[in-house]
Task: inverse folding
């Protein structure tokens, strides 16, 4: 490497030893001093060896630079390692620091080494030795490098050595500049090996901040192209190198940010078509982002266990960039993909492969999570042949399905799995459906995951999306297509769109029975869902009647101890009780409980549901203290099994507080429900049926405690929400209007109570019939307030 940079005049007071030679102590402990004269040409100070990369056009000041400069000026840190993903701007930071400190700290010597290999470092050191120590007569490069390092350790000159892009700690063995009061070393690297970092100050460099990225693009682009710089920054993950390439491309093509984002979002376009050609790069970038990372991937794949890092990164390329569970890569599906042959891999191999990727900043592996920059993911995917991408998609889906429990116990882990499922489907849906004869199980689990978390709008949207794809690929009569339609109807009903759910289920029941037969499990599932939705539509008697018929058929086809039969019995008991037959509900649940314990186990979710349902109807049948005691036990057991944040726990807590109030502890019940209401509003929002249920329970308790105004405040919120969700003529809307009318009567507003109850009675006679128990209750309440 040739020395570069203008020769500057020697400064006054230069080291007098320069004119007489330099004393150098060779390493090895001999203590022998050597003088080097040999016709060496005079050295001008300050001196530069190597070429400091010029400042990039549009150079953006970054907060991390302040850290680097303070370490240099104030803390006097001898060695700083600037580490980060390829493309985050490590070299530009080091170059800016070298330029600034050369002037500000009046450095006598700056040596810039582009570390391509160990031989490159030796060559750069030998050049420095030629300039400073040996003179123009060349000697053995290794010996010259040793003499240069010795000179650094003994000189009175102030110096900075920058080792740019160190690819391996092995390349630097015995070549590290010595720690010296007058010396500083800056290292840039994509690696974070323990050997590289030991005893050195690590300064991690991430992407631009949002503000830095926006300012950078505004500075790079003509004003007419900057209509959405924030969107471009977000799309490119605020990666400096990618932003520079994108800005060049936009300027060349005269594209606005909005137009560029449209092209970037088009997955048919490759990154190579969204950045300039390598020969056209500017800002002194030597490589494209894809080339930058491919070198790191190749190096990581050579780390033991050899050949594991690349396939693990390929799996990570189709999952959520913000976080994947480490355990996903240790599943049988992931290990099988990584092995790509008969050689068996284990959990330790997967972890070692992830650590290899981590060492090269291709992933961040920390606290059980794996994160990858979204552009790295896209670059990796685009290098995969179609057949291999399909194998990646299926393997990642298999791994995710294996990791996903049947019941989401840990809310945070469930959120992590949902996010990965969404990303998987968004980026490789075509590969998951390609040549498929069935829908991958992870797709149904994804939809159910949103529904179980009460994220009903998401559950509905994904059920529609995936159901439409199943219809298109598998056909209308395929059982998986019909199963997605059944899921869609279930979540529509839970979201309050009961009429639409019932209409869809009536069509589905007819179609699935005709296609698959009346005894097919899909047919039984659709019939069960239809009965359940009729109950939510305000007709519990019809729900109980339909579910009783389905239960007979289910027990006949699947057996009385099948989990679906047991779950159906639990559901039938609920609607029996709601229709007024609490004793029948208790009897059915007492019969079902031993079977569900025997079949599913004492801690299964269905077992806990049957116990909670039984406790409620025992209390409803008049044995309140027994019901409360049973509810306390099942709440404790459900918290232990499913966790305190599970929705089943929330339902049981609501039920326990209700009966606690009915047993006489109104103050304790109100406190429990007020606390639960805050949690439900935070988790489910104000329009969810669970939030309504808690407000209704509070209203009842406030009425019993003689505070109708507080009851009315809650009921008015519920009424406004139900009108918005269900409409004015829905049974649940009329139920809330009934409760609100009675509360107004208790507050003394009897005229308004009578007018409202008369309207509710007309509606219930029309919707439920003149003999329905809710109609009769309304009639009695109206007579009561008329008499008042």
Result:
């Amino acid at each position: 490497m040739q020395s570069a940079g203008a020769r500057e005049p020697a400064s006054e007071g230069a080291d007098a030893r320069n004119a007489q030679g330099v004393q150098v102590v060779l390493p090895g402990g001999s203590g022998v001093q050597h003088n080097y004269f040999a016709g060496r040409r005079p050295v001008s100070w300050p001196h530069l060896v190597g070429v400091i990369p010029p400042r990039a056009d549009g150079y953006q000041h970054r907060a991390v630079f302040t850290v680097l400069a303070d370490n240099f000026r104030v803390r006097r840190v001898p060695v700083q390692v600037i580490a980060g993903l390829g493309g985050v701007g490590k070299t530009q930071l080091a170059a800016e620091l070298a330029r600034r400190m050369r002037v500000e700290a009046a450095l006598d010597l700056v040596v810039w080494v582009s570390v391509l290999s160990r031989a490159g470092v030796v060559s750069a050191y030998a050049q420095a030795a030629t300039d400073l120590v040996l003179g123009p007569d060349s000697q053995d490069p290794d010996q010259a490098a040793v003499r240069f390092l010795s000179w650094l350790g003994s000189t009175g000159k102030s110096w900075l050595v920058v080792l740019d892009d160190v690819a391996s700690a092995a390349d630097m063995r015995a070549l590290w500049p010595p720690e010296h009061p007058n010396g500083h070393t800056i290292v840039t690297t994509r690696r974070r090996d323990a050997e590289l970092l030991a005893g050195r100050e690590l300064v991690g460099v991430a992407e631009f901040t949002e503000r830095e990225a926006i300012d950078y693009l505004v500075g790079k682009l003509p004003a007419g192209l900057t209509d959405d710089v924030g969107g471009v920054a977000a799309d490119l993950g605020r990666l400096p190198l990618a932003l520079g390439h994108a800005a060049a491309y936009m300027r060349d093509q005269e594209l606005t940010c909005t137009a560029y984002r449209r092209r970037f979002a088009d997955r048919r376009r490759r990154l190579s078509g969204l950045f300039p050609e390598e020969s056209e790069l500017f800002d002194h970038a030597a490589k494209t982002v894809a080339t930058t990372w491919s070198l790191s991937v190749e190096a990581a794949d050579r780390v033991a266990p050899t050949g594991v890092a690349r396939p693990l990164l390929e799996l990570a390329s189709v999952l959520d960039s913000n976080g994947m569970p480490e355990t996903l890569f240790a599943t049988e599906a992931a290990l099988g993909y990584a092995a790509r042959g008969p050689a068996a891999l284990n959990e330790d191999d997967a972890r070692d492969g992830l650590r290899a990727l981590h060492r090269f900043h291709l992933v961040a592996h920390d606290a059980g999570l794996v994160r990858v920059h979204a552009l790295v993911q896209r670059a990796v995917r685009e290098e995969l042949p179609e057949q291999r991408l399909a194998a990646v998609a299926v393997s990642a889906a298999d791994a995710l399905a294996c990791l996903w429990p049947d019941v989401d116990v840990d809310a945070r882990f469930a959120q992590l799995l949902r996010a990965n499922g969404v990303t998987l489907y968004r980026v490789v849906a075509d590969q998951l459906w390609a040549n498929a004869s069935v829908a991958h199980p992870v797709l149904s689990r994804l939809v159910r995951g949103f529904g179980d978390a009460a994220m009903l709008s998401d559950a509905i949207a994904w059920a529609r999306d995936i159901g439409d794809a199943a219809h298109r690929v598998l056909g209308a009569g395929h059982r998986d297509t019909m199963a997605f339609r059944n899921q869609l109807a279930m979540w529509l009903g839970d979201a309050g769109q009961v009429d639409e759910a019932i209409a869809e289920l009536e069509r589905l029941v007819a179609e699935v029975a005709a296609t698959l037969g009346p005894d097919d499990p899909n047919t039984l599932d659709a019939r069960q869902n239809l009965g359940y939705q009729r109950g939510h539509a305000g007709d519990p008697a019809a729900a109980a009647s339909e579910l009783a018929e389905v239960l007979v058929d289910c027990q006949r086809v699947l057996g009385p101890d099948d989990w679906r039969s047991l779950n159906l019995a639990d559901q039938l008991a609920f609607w029996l009780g709601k229709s007024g037959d609490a004793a029948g509900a208790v009897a059915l649940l007492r019969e079902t409980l031993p079977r569900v314990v025997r079949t599913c186990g004492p801690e299964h979710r269905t077992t806990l549901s049957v116990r909670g349902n039984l406790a409620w109807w025992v209390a409803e049948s008049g044995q309140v203290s027994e019901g409360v005691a049973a509810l306390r036990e099942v709440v404790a057991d459900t918290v232990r099994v499913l966790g305190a944040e599970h929705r089943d726990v929330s339902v049981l807590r609501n039920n326990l507080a209700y009966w606690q109030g009915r047993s006489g502890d109104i103050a304790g019940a109100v406190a429990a429900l007020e606390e639960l209401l805050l949690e439900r509003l935070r988790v489910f929002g104000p329009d969810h049926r669970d939030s309504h249920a808690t407000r209704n329970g509070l209203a009842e308790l406030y009425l019993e405690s003689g505070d109708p105004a507080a009851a009315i405040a809650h009921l008015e919120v519920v009424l406004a929400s139900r009108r918005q969700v269900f409409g004015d003529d829905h049974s649940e809307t009329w139920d809330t209007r009934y409760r609100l009318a009675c509360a107004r009567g208790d507050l003394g507003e009897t005229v308004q109570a009578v007018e409202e109850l008369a309207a509710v009675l007309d509606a219930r006679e029309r919707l439920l019939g003149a003999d329905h128990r809710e109609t009769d209750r309304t009639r009695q309440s109206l007579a009561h307030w008329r008499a008042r």
Remarks:
- The longest strand covers residues 159-166.
- Residues 1-39, 279-286 have pLDDT under 50 and may be disordered.
